[in-house]
Design a protein that fits this description.
By secondary structure, this protein is of the alpha+beta class. 38% of the residues lie in helices and 18% in strands. It has one domain (3-13, 23-142): SMI1/KNR4-like, CATH 3.40.1580.10. It contains 5 helices and 5 strands; from the N terminus they run H-H-H-E-H-E-E-E-E-H. It has a 5-stranded antiparallel beta sheet with strand order 1-2-3-4-5.
Length: 144
Protein backbone atom coordinates (compact mmCIF):
# COMPACT_ATOMS: atom_id res chain seq x y z
CA UNK A 1 0.00 0.00 0.00
CA UNK A 2 1.30 3.48 -0.90
CA UNK A 3 1.92 5.19 2.45
CA UNK A 4 2.11 8.72 0.99
CA UNK A 5 -1.36 8.38 -0.57
CA UNK A 6 -2.75 7.07 2.71
CA UNK A 7 -1.19 10.00 4.59
CA UNK A 8 -2.77 12.41 2.08
CA UNK A 9 -6.16 10.73 2.51
CA UNK A 10 -5.85 11.00 6.30
CA UNK A 11 -5.17 14.74 5.95
CA UNK A 12 -8.48 15.19 4.11
CA UNK A 13 -10.19 14.09 7.35
CA UNK A 14 -8.14 16.36 9.59
CA UNK A 15 -9.76 18.76 12.04
CA UNK A 16 -7.92 22.07 12.47
CA UNK A 17 -6.44 22.85 15.89
CA UNK A 18 -5.28 26.24 17.16
CA UNK A 19 -1.73 25.09 17.92
CA UNK A 20 -0.63 21.91 16.19
CA UNK A 21 2.41 20.14 17.56
CA UNK A 22 5.69 21.02 15.86
CA UNK A 23 7.04 18.39 13.51
CA UNK A 24 10.27 16.73 14.66
CA UNK A 25 13.65 16.95 13.01
CA UNK A 26 15.68 13.98 11.81
CA UNK A 27 17.94 14.52 14.84
CA UNK A 28 15.00 14.34 17.28
CA UNK A 29 13.80 11.11 15.66
CA UNK A 30 17.31 9.63 15.82
CA UNK A 31 17.50 10.56 19.51
CA UNK A 32 14.14 8.87 20.22
CA UNK A 33 15.25 5.73 18.34
CA UNK A 34 18.54 5.68 20.25
CA UNK A 35 16.86 6.11 23.61
CA UNK A 36 14.43 3.27 22.85
CA UNK A 37 17.05 1.07 21.16
CA UNK A 38 14.94 0.63 18.01
CA UNK A 39 14.74 1.78 14.41
CA UNK A 40 11.35 3.10 13.33
CA UNK A 41 9.87 1.59 10.16
CA UNK A 42 10.47 3.91 7.17
CA UNK A 43 6.78 4.84 6.73
CA UNK A 44 6.48 5.73 10.42
CA UNK A 45 9.62 7.86 10.18
CA UNK A 46 8.02 9.79 7.27
CA UNK A 47 4.79 10.06 9.27
CA UNK A 48 6.68 11.52 12.24
CA UNK A 49 8.65 13.97 10.07
CA UNK A 50 5.78 15.19 7.91
CA UNK A 51 2.41 14.25 9.41
CA UNK A 52 2.65 13.62 13.16
CA UNK A 53 0.88 16.87 14.03
CA UNK A 54 -2.37 15.65 12.44
CA UNK A 55 -5.61 15.81 14.39
CA UNK A 56 -8.08 13.33 12.93
CA UNK A 57 -10.58 11.40 15.02
CA UNK A 58 -9.89 9.75 18.35
CA UNK A 59 -6.52 8.24 17.46
CA UNK A 60 -3.61 10.04 19.08
CA UNK A 61 -0.32 8.89 17.65
CA UNK A 62 2.66 8.87 19.95
CA UNK A 63 4.99 11.58 18.71
CA UNK A 64 8.56 12.66 19.21
CA UNK A 65 7.82 16.34 19.87
CA UNK A 66 4.96 15.92 22.36
CA UNK A 67 5.24 16.23 26.11
CA UNK A 68 3.48 13.95 28.57
CA UNK A 69 1.44 10.86 27.76
CA UNK A 70 1.71 11.06 23.96
CA UNK A 71 5.49 11.53 23.88
CA UNK A 72 6.67 8.37 22.15
CA UNK A 73 9.71 7.77 24.36
CA UNK A 74 7.80 8.26 27.62
CA UNK A 75 4.79 6.24 26.44
CA UNK A 76 6.83 3.33 25.10
CA UNK A 77 8.96 3.12 28.23
CA UNK A 78 5.78 3.14 30.33
CA UNK A 79 4.15 0.47 28.15
CA UNK A 80 7.23 -1.76 28.40
CA UNK A 81 8.03 -1.18 32.07
CA UNK A 82 4.62 -0.67 33.69
CA UNK A 83 1.97 -2.19 31.42
CA UNK A 84 3.57 -5.45 30.41
CA UNK A 85 3.86 -4.78 26.69
CA UNK A 86 6.62 -7.08 25.38
CA UNK A 87 9.77 -5.35 24.13
CA UNK A 88 9.26 -7.08 20.79
CA UNK A 89 6.36 -4.64 20.27
CA UNK A 90 6.87 -0.91 19.71
CA UNK A 91 3.75 1.11 20.62
CA UNK A 92 2.98 4.03 18.29
CA UNK A 93 -0.59 4.89 19.39
CA UNK A 94 -2.83 4.22 22.36
CA UNK A 95 -6.47 3.25 22.01
CA UNK A 96 -9.18 0.66 22.53
CA UNK A 97 -7.82 -0.44 25.90
CA UNK A 98 -4.25 -0.92 24.85
CA UNK A 99 -1.72 0.02 22.21
CA UNK A 100 -1.21 -0.22 18.48
CA UNK A 101 2.34 -1.46 18.00
CA UNK A 102 4.91 -2.39 15.42
CA UNK A 103 5.84 -6.05 15.71
CA UNK A 104 9.62 -5.75 15.76
CA UNK A 105 9.90 -9.49 15.14
CA UNK A 106 8.16 -9.30 11.78
CA UNK A 107 10.27 -9.49 8.63
CA UNK A 108 11.35 -6.54 6.52
CA UNK A 109 11.75 -2.84 7.20
CA UNK A 110 8.01 -2.15 7.20
CA UNK A 111 6.92 -4.01 10.30
CA UNK A 112 3.46 -5.46 10.73
CA UNK A 113 1.13 -3.66 13.12
CA UNK A 114 -0.61 -5.38 16.02
CA UNK A 115 -3.12 -4.35 18.63
CA UNK A 116 -2.06 -5.27 22.17
CA UNK A 117 -4.72 -4.97 24.87
CA UNK A 118 -4.47 -4.73 28.64
CA UNK A 119 -7.46 -7.05 29.04
CA UNK A 120 -5.96 -9.94 27.12
CA UNK A 121 -2.34 -9.00 27.83
CA UNK A 122 -1.75 -10.08 24.27
CA UNK A 123 -2.27 -9.41 20.59
CA UNK A 124 -5.87 -9.14 19.44
CA UNK A 125 -5.52 -7.93 15.84
CA UNK A 126 -2.89 -7.61 13.08
CA UNK A 127 -2.30 -5.52 9.93
CA UNK A 128 0.36 -5.96 7.24
CA UNK A 129 2.01 -2.57 7.81
CA UNK A 130 1.53 1.00 9.07
CA UNK A 131 -0.17 2.29 5.89
CA UNK A 132 -2.63 -0.62 5.91
CA UNK A 133 -3.42 0.07 9.58
CA UNK A 134 -4.05 3.78 8.87
CA UNK A 135 -6.30 2.97 5.90
CA UNK A 136 -8.32 0.17 7.47
CA UNK A 137 -8.40 1.23 11.13
CA UNK A 138 -7.80 4.99 11.51
CA UNK A 139 -9.46 6.16 8.29
CA UNK A 140 -11.99 3.33 8.58
CA UNK A 141 -12.99 4.59 12.04
CA UNK A 142 -13.47 8.13 10.71
CA UNK A 143 -15.67 6.90 7.86
CA UNK A 144 -18.40 5.59 10.17
Amino acid sequence: MDAQRVFEELHTLEKPVPRPLPLPTEQQIAQAESRLGVTFPPSFRVFELEHSNINAGDIEPLVVTAHGPINIVEAVESAWNECGVPRTLLPFAAGDGGYFCFDLGSKGEEKSVVQWTHESAGITDRWDDFATWIKSYWIGELSY
